[in-house]
Design goal:
mainly alpha
Amino acid sequence: MRLAELVEGVSGAASRVTRTVRQRAPRKARKKSRPISKAQRAARQAQGRYMGSLRQLSAEAKAKVKAIRAKSGVQAAIAAARKMAKST
């Protein structure tokens, strides 16, 4: 008798779970991402190196590096940030 009650309880719970799963909205299909160009990949990598080198600097040093980036470009700013980090 007890076993029958347990089986009935489990099957009831399973039907409730399947009911809630069926009621969930279907997921949208993920858009296929297009491959990026070599130039875009290089730009993203440079941006990552730039941001990573800025993280360890003080606010004053960050301002100097941002000025260098505006004047001379990302590569010069990365070099300056690394040099500033070593001197600290």
